[in-house]
Design goal:
The chain is an all-alpha fold. It has one domain. The chain contains 14 helices and no strands. The longest helix is centred in the middle third of the chain and has 41 residues. This is Phosphate transporter. One of its GO terms (biological process) is phosphate ion transmembrane transport.
Length: 416
Amino acid sequence: MENFSLILAIVVVTALAFDFTNGFHDTANAMATTISTGALKPKVAVAMSAVLNLAGAFLSVEVANTISKGLVDETGIRPEVIFAALVGAILWNLLTWLVGLPSSSSHALMGGLIGATIASAGMGAVHGDVLVTKVLIPALAAPIVAGVAALLATRLSYTLGKKADGKAAEKGYRAGQIASAGLVSLAHGTNDAQKTMGIITLALVAGGAVAPNSDPPTWVILSAGLAIALGTYIGGWRIIRTMGKGLTELQPQQGFAAQTSAATAILASSHLGFSLSTTHVVSGSVMGAGLGRKGGVVRWSTATRMLVAWCLTLPAAALVGAGAESVTDLGDWGTAVVAVFLIASSAAIWKISRREVVDASNVNESEEPPGVVTTAIAAVTPPPAGTVTDDLTATIPAPATTVAVPDPATPPAAAV
C-alpha cells in the first residue's frame, strides 16, 4: 500500500460516493412494487433492502472483474481517468433522481468510464467486443425477457387464483412479494455493488497499489457493500414513486410476478458476468406485470420518458466523463477544479430537490396524469355491477298522475 497516493484516495472516496448514489437511485428496483401494493411499510422495506444489498455484495466478483479487467485496457489508465468517469456517472445519477426517472446507474458508470478512457487513451483502449456482448446486448434483451416473463407469470397467477379465497390469496401473494423483493435486493448487491468494486480495483491497478488482473481486495468488497447499503436505506423516494405508481398500478399478484421475474434475470446475469442494468430489468418486469392483468394499463408517457433516459445515459455520461478527463489532464489544479464542480453541482441538485420533497410519507401519492390509452379504456369500460354513480339522471319522465273529476250529471252510485 506504499503506492496509495492522494489522487488514488480521492478516486476511492468518489467511487464510494457513486456507490451511495447507486444505492438510493436503485432502491426502487427492489422495493417499489412492495411499497406500492402495501406489502411492506416504506421504511421497513428500505431497511430490509439495505441489509440484503450488503449481503449480496459478498456472493460473487464476476461483474467486478468485467469492469476491472474486460471493458477497458487497464494498462496506461491513470487514476485521474477513473475520477473523471465517476464524475460523469454521479452527475447523471443525481439528475435522473431529481426528475424521478429510473435510469441505469450501471450504464452511467460504464458511459463515464468509456468517455474518460477515450479522451485519455483513444478508441483502442475500449474493448468493443466486451462492450457489445456484456453490456449493450444485455441492455436490449433484459427488459424484454423480464417483461415477457412477468406478463406470463401474472396471467398464470390470476388463472390459478380464480377459485382461491380472495383474502387468503392476497395475503399469500403479499408474503411471496416480500420474499421476492428480498431476492431482488440480494441480486442487486451481487450485480451493482460489484460495479463499484470493479472501478475501485481498476483504480488500484492504475495507481500501482495492486497487481494487474487482481480480484477486488476484501476491504474493497466490504466498503462497496456498506456504501450501497447506506444509500439504499436513505431511500430514493422519487424513483420509488415513479416505479411503483407512475408506471402502472399493481396488485399483489402482479407485484409478486414482477419481482420474481426480475430477480431470476438479475441473478442469472450476475452468474454469467453480465454488467446488467437492474433498472432495465425491473422496469420491464413491472410493465409486463401491468399488461398481464386483464384491464391493466401502462402509462406509456412515463415509459417513453424512461426509454429516452435509457438511450441518453451512456452518451451523456461519456461526454461528461470525457470533458472531466480533459480538465484533469491539465494537472493537479485541473483535478481540483473538477472536484469543486462535482461538489457544487451535487449541492445545487440537492437544493432544487427540496422545493418538492418526496419521502416515505407521500411516496404512494402518484401525480402522474393518466395517459391517452388509460383515459380511452376508462371511457369505454362499464362500471361494475351494483354500483350507482352520482351523476346519473332519469331520461324517461314518469307518467303524469291524473285525478278523475266526477261529472255532475251522473247520479252517484248507490251506497251499500
